[in-house]
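lol so apparently i was supposed to do this last week
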Amino acid sequence: MTPRPTPIAPSEITPPEVYFSRRTLLAAALASAASGCVRAAGGEPAGAPLAYERNARYSVSEKPNTYDEITTYNNFYEFGTDKESPSEYARMMRTRPWSVTVAGEAEVRGRFDLEDLLKGQPLEERIYRFRCVEAWSLVVPWVGFPLGKLLGRFKPTSRAKYVELTTLYAPQQMPGQRAAVLNWPYVEGLRIDEAMHPLTLVVVGLYGRTLPNQDGAPLRLIVPWKYGFKSIKSIVQIRFTEREPNTAWNVAAPHEYGFYANVNPAVDHPRWSQATERRLGSPFLAARRPTLPFNGYAAEVASLYQGMDLRRYF
Ligand code: MTE
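anyway here it is w/ MTE bound
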């Protein structure tokens, strides 16, 4: 994803090294290594084990990608614009203590510790398809719970038509934020009925253990029928709004990244086709697979968009 249409080849795009100082990165990486942070070795899931139940009703039967595939090929521009930087640098982010601020059109507002938000909340494992707008895809065993359960606790008012979510802003910990690639912090949003839909998940884990930082620790969103950029990582604020929120990618390139971003093989990105996708981990010469309307979740969610022109609201 690039904020502006560009005719140059990907190999000519400024490398992230130019954006932020290598020296700072190295110092911080060494500091966090010295403080005992560990990385997954040999592809084994890292993180603390979670208690959860598999939700078969909301799980696909496709084979999940490996832990390695899910955690070493990431989009998390706060740590650099290439796929490898997040797994290398995301350990610079401190995920404890963590709190989430709730604001806007809700009766219950304020700042809540992550532990309090998660206390007593049963967790489920759901195996979802995940489709990036860049036309690669994954199948992931997430651990989390429906966003609607969390939002309901704040008692949104009748004026809450949308929900806006914001990622941590901490350039000392997130070196990518020192470059004006996006208008930081990263912001995403959903219509309130999309946010309350049972498929929309708050995710805290992966393969049965707490999320690695590069996948959006300590909590992120997963909206499986939308392009991956809607699934915002490392959330620190939830705001209920009357108006459609200004979201990071939509502001950066409104003709390329719409607010809705429902997976739709019939509407191409201005610079590439969305008709097919490459499943990560499949053999190099494997055929691309067809992309499914709403990423295969049409039976559950198509009714949310009845009467809307999905070419206009892309
Ligand atoms: N959230 C934040 N804060 N910053 C990002 O750069 N990238 C998005 C989304 N959430 C992004 C983000 C995009 S483009 C995708 S495809 C997914 O995260 C990637 O999630 P993954 O790395 O866990 O596969």
